[in-house]
Each structure stands twice: as structure tokens, then as C-alpha cells.
Write a structure and sequence with these properties.
302 residues; mainly alpha; MetI-like fold; 0% strand; elongated; membrane; MetI-like_sf; transport; transmembrane
Length: 302
Amino acid sequence: MITWRGFLKRFLSDPVAIGAGIVLLILILMAVLAPVIAPQNPYDLLQIDIMDSEMPPSWQPGGDPRFLLGTDSQGRGVLSTIMYGTGISLLIGIGAVIVQGILGVTLGLWAGYRGGWVDSFLMRLADIQMSLSTLMIAIIVLALFQAAFEASVYADYAIIMLILIIGIAEWPKFARTVRSSVLGEKNKEYVDAARVIGLPARKVMWGHILPNALTPVMVISTIQVAEAIMTEAALSFLGLGMPVDRPSLGSLIRSGFEFVFSGSWWITLYPALVLIALILALNLLGDWLRDVLNPKLRRGDD
């Protein structure tokens, strides 16, 4: 098993991993510290002036030093909305993966350990789930939710709905990953020893097998956060994600898309660049984790 020293050594010897880690750290800090460091609170109507709408970045003719990256159609600073929007995108991505993990790990662990009809039933259920597009499921559910409730109600529960829908739709990826690891672990000697001394199945599964099956879960979690953020961005771009008054990166891109051809390109461009950087950093770190934690790819110096 790779040690923390070997893990850190591999990380510091990989320029791509270092670069991705720095970018991700900057974006996380920017999102977490947004209420402190953002020039403007885009949720505070007292700080927004419609007369400031569609100002170009500060270095362009007509720009204002108060708005480094310009303003959107509502007079909100693009830099401030990006800071707050990144936080919402990360919250939805991480929350959705937590839901996926709870469902997927539990069902995958149960299926792999029990086997038989339990395994067959859960894996066929996973096959059906994976045959359906997450985006399609989300579009149908969110469209029905928007039609059934008022816009104010939808705005209050949009984050929770997105987390639950994306999380529930993607649980099979965790379940299949954990099941494969459990199948490789459950017949080993330490599991047989736990059974011999009379430990109940629940303790054998959660206390002995699961800790040895978590390595691939770490890898898939990083990649799934990126996928959840992309799904939320796509839904928001279609008008089914976060409302305009509580923007994520996806809804920021959508709100500025109609102004691209009128010359206000900065409203869409900068949120899009941040979204690309966030997704790329997460995917690169996920790929690096997969290579490092794969025993077939690890070197002896770890």
C-alpha cells in the first residue's frame, strides 16, 4: 500500500498534478472566501445598480475600475458572480457525489458480499439506470418540478433538487466499482478469519472489507465531481438549473450567451473559462490518482 510519503513524492514529481492542484486550490479558496474577498455581493440588491449593466472589463474603453471583468445585464460584477457561482457549482458537485457515494457504496458492498439473487437484482437495476441518460432524467424531473411549483419555490429548493437528481442518477458507477473490489476481497483470509470468530455480516462488510475497497472510490469520486458540475452547468444552460438570482457557473454562461453577438462577450467568456479550468483540474487530478493508486502502475520507490 502506498504511504503518504510516497504519495507526496509522486505528487511533487508530477508537474501536471501540481498545476491541477494549484488551480483547484485557487478556485476552492476563491469560492469559500467569496463573501470576504468579492468586490460585490451579487445577491444584495442594495449593491447592484442597473445603470452599471454591460460595462466592459476595466482595461477596455468604457470600463470601470470597480469591475475588473466587467458587468452583466443586471449590473453585477462578473468577477463577483464568478466567485459566488463557483461556490454553488462546487457545492452541487460535491453534494451530488456524496449522495452517489452513500447509495453506490452501500448497494455495491451489499451486492458483492451477498451475491446470488441480491447481486443479480441490484446489478440489473444498475444496468437499467446506466442505460438512461442522467441529463434526460434531470430534464424531465426538473421540468415537472418547475411546472408544479412557483418560481420562488423552485429557487429555494433548486440546489437540493439538483444534488438529489444528479446523485441518484449516477449511483451505479460507485456501486459497480465497489462491487468489483468486494468480489476480490471477500474470499481472502482476513475475511474468513472474521467470519470464523463469529463477527456478523454487517461488521465484516463495513469494518473489514470496505476499508480495503475504498481506493477506487477515491479516484471515481474526483472524476464524478467534475461530471456532476458539468451536468449542472448543462441543466442551467438549458434553463432548468440554478435560477438567475443565485447563479452557478452554468447559469452565468446562459445569462450572458444572448449578449455575445451584441458585443458583451465578457459576460459569458469568463465564467466559461473558469468552468473549463475547474473541470480540467478535477479530471487531471482524478487521472493522476488513478495512476498512483493502481498497484500495477506503482513503482517500487513508493
